[in-house]
Amino acid sequence: MAYLNTSAPSHVASNISGFLGNAAKTVTGFFASIGTAMVVNSTAYHRLEQVERLQARSDAELSKLGLRREEIVHHVFRDLFWH
Length: 83
What we know:
Elements: H1 10-55, H2 59-64, H3 72-76
């Protein structure tokens, strides 16, 4: 006759729960990183679109907006870079 013991020593159980907890944190961190990258990419795409729209305007149109052609990138990214 064979006996089966389904309980594990407490140190094994704590190691398993610690491992699973760390794995959950790793997986959560991974998906959080993907989400952050998607937001950053989306924001960058919209800024580049804005640069392209402004570059397509004539110098007279830009002047009405108070911009010179060489200031377009500085204008679009003004909240990220300064000098």
